[in-house]
Amino acid sequence: MDVINYPLIFSVAIVALASPGPATLAIAGTSMASGRKYGMVLASGVLCGSLTWSITAALGLGTLMLHNAWILETVRYVGAGYLLFMGFKAAKATLFPTDKQVSPIQVGSLAAAFRKGYALHLTNPKAILFFGSLYSIGVPANSTFAELVPVITMIGMMSTTVFLGYGWLFAVPALRRGYSRLYRVFNGLFAAVFGAVGLRLLTARLT
After folding, report:
1. Tens of pLDDT along 141-187?
2. Dist CA 166 CA 26 (whole Å)
3. 62: how many CB neighbours lie within 10 A of its CB?
4. Residue 13: partners with Cβ closer than 8 Å, 6 or more residues away
């Protein structure tokens, strides 16, 4: 491979970014429970986490982390613990509802919403693996960082569209009313997804 394969990078990235996962569910839950402003701010935190890992992979630091297993293992356990904690909160809200606005992501302020979105994506070792693989399969090994800037920009624009789009969409009044009526169903879904991904991270072998 002599040139950057933009079609391959674009197709892989859009599928991975748009697929439902902990980050997109957290954005959706926050927008439905707390409103568009909080959902968009949390989405901005997730976006910054995505850009952090994208730049890290472009600089080659992702490969360095993958070759130093203890670093990746530390991130893995922290991320799994965070997801399991959110899964526990969502399960508790499902089984013992006290407030119809309960969400697995509790945001008391806009700053807290941003921090939790950033932490959610930054502690996800799958993001390291995703971006490391993306740059490995679509970018020549001898590419300079300057040549990777357009790739980082493209992925950043895609992430912005997807994450902020989720934040805007799930604050639509009809969806918020649906959440108010079916909040136990939504929180049950959050508990299942966060718990499953957290357990998967704990038991998977990251190679």
Report:
1. 677 778 888 888 988 998 899 899 989 988 888 877 777 677 677 77
2. 10
3. 25
4. 134, 154, 155, 158
- Tally of residues, the chain: 207
Within the chain, how many helices (H) and strands (E) appear? 9, 0
Cβ atoms of 197 and 123 within 8 Å: the answer is no
DSSP state, residue 195: H
CA distance 47 to 156: 8
Cα separation, 207 vs 202, in Å, equals 14
Compute the 3-state secondary structure of the chain and give helix, strand, coil in percent, each to the nearest 5: 80, 0, 20
Q: What's the CA gap between 19 and 11, in Å, rounded?
A: 12
Place of tokens 């108010």: 180
pTM value > 0.85 = no
Please say whether the beta carbons of 108 and 34 come within 8 A.
no
Longest dimension (CA), the chain: 59
Q: What is the pLDDT of residues 89-142, one digit of tens each?
A: 777 767 776 655 555 566 778 998 999 899 888 877 677 777 777 777 777 767
Write down the residue that tokens 């895609």 correspond to.
158
Asked whether 84 and 78 are in contact (CB, 8 A), the reply is no
Q: Which residue is it, tokens 């805007």?
A: 168
Contact criterion met (CB below 8 Å) for 10 and 154: yes
